[in-house]
Structures are given as structure tokens and as C-alpha cells.
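COURSE: Structural Biology Practicum
ASSIGNMENT: Worksheet 4, Part C
STUDENT ID: 0417
INSTRUCTIONS: Below are two proteins. For each, the amino acid sequence is given first, followed by its C-alpha cell string. Answer the questions at the end about the second protein only.

PROTEIN I
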Amino acid sequence: MQSKAKTVGRYIASLPKERQASIQAVRRVIVKNLPQGYEETMQYGMISYVVPLRSYPTGYLGQKDVPLPYAGLASQKNYMSLYLMATYGDKAGEARFKKEYKASGKKLNMGKSCIRFKSVEDLALPVIGKAIRRMPVKKFIAAYERAREGSSRRH
């Protein structure tokens, strides 16, 4: 369910009251742990944390007008989602994240890079904060470029 909101504030205000608190709590964890150089914006109809074009002018998938997404936070029809792009395509990083999450005692409902949750109480927020903090911009760009290079060799 993509929002047409142009700002994070409007996006949050448009959510059902029962979801606003959960989205705001996760957002606080992200913002507190976000390495310097990323920016919060709206992208793909959700709250997004991106590598700005001034830092990575190549853009996402070579689209020079689309900043490289690092994380996203969205309210979907049946659940809320947290997208952690740094765990996608990094087998060791994903395994570490899943191990830390399991150790938290919380149940992880995760797709490729998407963690689905019904309320903030479902999440291991310290583990999420650590995952966000783990990847400085330059390291993320390098990992993204390695992944793109690897996928182009497979085609």
C-alpha cells in the first residue's frame, strides 16, 4: 500500500492511530543508529533512508534520479514492514542478523530484506539498531556495487 505523502510527517499522520506509535518507535531507533551520510526521505511510498545522489550520483540501478535505498519503513495492508537492504545479498551479514535476532527471544518474520511486524512489541529493536548502525555509507555503496557486478556477470 504505497502512500502518496510527500513528507515523513504527512506519511505518519496518514496512518491509522494504532500504527503511528509503532512506526514512530521504529523510526526513532533507525534515526538514532543511522550512520552519518544517509538521509531520511520518502521513496517508493514509504519512509526511506537513502544514500543521497550527491554521495552516489550513479543512483539506484543506474537511475541518476533515484537515491540508493538503505532502509525503508512502511505500513502495509496487513502488517508493517522494515526493509534492511544491507542484509539482502550479504549472506554473512544476514546470518549474523538472524542469529542476533533469535538470541533476543523475539520471533523473526523476514523475507529477503523485509521484516514484517504487527506492532513494535514484535521487534527486537536493539538488534535492528545494531543492523542499521553496522553499515557506513561507503561500505554500503561498495557492497551494493559488488552485488550489482556479481548479478551482471550471471546474466
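PROTEIN II
(use this one for the questions)
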Amino acid sequence: MEWIGRKLDAFLGAMVVAAAAIAASQAHAFLIQYVQRLGGHLDEAKAHLDNVQHGLRYQLMSDTVRKELEDEASKRVAELQNAYHAIADADVVTKPFALLRHADPNMLAGTWHDFVPALPATTDSIFYIVIAMVLGFAVYEIVKLPVVLLLQEPRRRKFRRRA
């Protein structure tokens, strides 16, 4: 019976580690797709700003209205550029935190809706997978510890006889 318990423990541990690795790889794929979407929004905002600054349609508007539209477009470009560089230029450790800090909720929802699972084979992806495997194993061992302690038979003390 002890043999089955050890095998079940090893199997459950492997399942937790595999699930953590898969989740990390998909989180990295999501991050990549979010940055691509963010870059597309940034390109579109730059094109809109250029159109407001130089487009004939906007040149025909009053200076006050055109200036207001230009300020809004400039602000949008600056926001997107700041978020893009904060996430894309972050190192492998801080990139997920940069995403959480600079993420736009609407863009996150759009990325999630269009998300295509992938298995990126980059150095960053492998780093996230390995870290997730280690953390998954640690969490499994921590969660398993109280169960093991409850199921473990109490140890009997051996007393020596004095002569």
C-alpha cells in the first residue's frame, strides 16, 4: 500500500509541475500577443496624430478644435508609447509585472478574446516555464505537507532498559 501512495504522490506532483509549466508558457504567449496588439494600436495612434497634424480635413477646422484634437491624439500616442516601451523593453523577470502595471483593460480583453494558444520556444519562455515548474513543485509540497502529517502514523519511542 505504501508503494501505491508513493507512486500517486509522484504522479500528482508531476501533474502539478506540468500544469504550472503549461500555464507559464501560455502566459508568455499571451504577453507576446498583447505586445503585438499594443504595437498595432500605437501605429494606428501615430497615423491618426499625423493625420490630425497634416491632413487636409483637419486643416479646414478652426485652430481651437484642431489643437484640441491634436492634444488628445498626442496624449494617446504618449500613453501607448510609454506602455509599449515599459513592457517590450523590460527584462525577463520584470516583464510580467510591467504588463500588469501598464495594461489597458480593453486591450487585455481583446487580446484574451483573440488569444491563440502557442508554445513559444524563446529563452524568456523557457525561463518562465522552469520558474513555474519549480514554484509548482514547491506549492505542491507545501499543500501536501499537512495531509502527510495527518496520515502519518505516530512514531513510537524506543526506550532502553537500564541494567
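ANSWER KEY EXCERPT:
Q1: Residues 15-143 form one domain.
Q2: The mean pLDDT is 90.
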